């Protein structure tokens, strides 16, 4: 009996040290579209602009197609560094939806920061409250549309849940990478994932 209890305890210890990504899906998609976007901090009605996950957009966020099934918090690694707000980044977190339907299935749209505080309402205003002459709009425009290989780190069951859920409620994910080998996730802001 003591041997069985000892065996169960050892087995429990082994499984308690299992990698944090044991339930994670890691997959790579080749030659995906990568674009950039910006918006005013406040909408024309004076309300703060939030992304689809209900949070204020932050550098390091990306939007994806809702039909991709990727839950919020999914980590995306690009095949080469991208300069965003003066810093080179290779990792991003899915926090928004809304990409041109003509782009590739797993395309990402990188948040380049707020173009201005209050929404621009001139005749040439963008849909997201910017003026074409805003510096961030020009930066996003110069970035253009690129093709990159992308690697995604997400939990498998949440990808399926997002694909099967109705479109009225945003998906979410609580991803804890604090005890994992996060060298590959070096510049992602973990607080943005909670």
Automatic annotation (TrEMBL):
Record's signal peptide: 1-24
The name this protein goes by in its record: Uncharacterized protein
Record keywords, A-Z: Signal
Lineage, opening ranks: Bacteria, Bacillati, Bacillota, Bacilli, Bacillales
